Amino acid sequence: MEYVTLNNGVKMPILGYGVYQIRDQEECERCVLDAISVGYRSIDTAQVYQNEIAVGHAIEKSGVPREEFFITTKVWISNAGYDKAKASIQESMDKLQLDYLDLVLIHQPFNDYYGTYRSMEELYKAGKIRAIGLSNFYPDRYIDLVEFTEIVPAVNQVETHVFNQQVKAHEFMKKYNTQIESWGPFAEGKNNFFTNPVLQEIADKYNKSTAQVALRFLIQRDVVVIPKTVNKSRMEENFNVFDFQLTAGDMDKIAVLDTGESLFFSHYDPQTVEYIINLGK
């Protein structure tokens, strides 16, 4: 496993396992146990995913020492604000059966996220959270928050894949010393992701899959990735990306695939914002 060092010195695996959309508790527990058996130690969940309890059960049953794990959760919009966020983070720890969290993110830049961040700063100083950060913060809101808070976010998790490479956003995160993390590294298969001819040509050269090439591309750009799958063999495939290196030419060919646009949603669209803030209310 390769690691990135966050701006506070905490080491984070560059490859983790995400549990988005695995709401069935038994299936989620089984998936996390499978991922742990493969070798994953970074697990990414969220309050709105409704599977923190299952993740906690898997961690407990795995028998792996707590200090080997890097556990991330995210505060949802409905829990925004200093008091509600603080209480919700404690509730997340209770569900996960953990007495500290490795990373807590603000899930979306809506509602009183400044109050949320203040509560996270306080819990960080108290040692309850090892690192704090953001999710889905576009450069404008990201910069605004960085400039008016005490602790620079350690991570900003944003949609990042070969079709939306977040080049400009990544530049600003580097400027302010925040680690970029990808959600949706496979774009959920959109744009015929897994049969893309550019990815396929490079994959054939290394006897790898298009998925492995896509992950390797992000990793070589120092992007943390958390691919999600419920299939153990795919978990193994996604984990097996540290035994080959893309050339500069390979990287250039993939860079051309970037459209600079989201394949999912835009926070600049009012109807999208209305939809997101009503989720999980």
TrEMBL record:
<feature type="active site" description="Proton donor">
    <location>
        <position position="49"/>
    </location>
</feature>
<dbReference type="Pfam" id="PF00248">
    <property type="entry name" value="Aldo_ket_red"/>
</dbReference>
<dbReference type="InterPro" id="IPR023210">
    <property type="entry name" value="NADP_OxRdtase_dom"/>
</dbReference>
<dbReference type="InterPro" id="IPR036812">
    <property type="entry name" value="NAD(P)_OxRdtase_dom_sf"/>
</dbReference>
<dbReference type="GO" id="GO:0016616">
    <property type="term" value="F:oxidoreductase activity, acting on the CH-OH group of donors, NAD or NADP as acceptor"/>
</dbReference>
<dbReference type="InterPro" id="IPR020471">
    <property type="entry name" value="AKR"/>
</dbReference>
<protein>
    <submittedName>
        <fullName>2,5-diketo-D-gluconic acid reductase</fullName>
    </submittedName>
</protein>
<feature type="site" description="Lowers pKa of active site Tyr">
    <location>
        <position position="74"/>
    </location>
</feature>
<dbReference type="InterPro" id="IPR018170">
    <property type="entry name" value="Aldo/ket_reductase_CS"/>
</dbReference>
<feature type="domain" description="NADP-dependent oxidoreductase">
    <location>
        <begin position="16"/>
        <end position="255"/>
    </location>
</feature>
<feature type="binding site">
    <location>
        <position position="107"/>
    </location>
    <ligand>
        <name>substrate</name>
    </ligand>
</feature>
<keyword id="KW-0521">NADP</keyword>
<comment type="similarity">
    <text>Belongs to the aldo/keto reductase family.</text>
</comment>
<keyword id="KW-0560">Oxidoreductase</keyword>
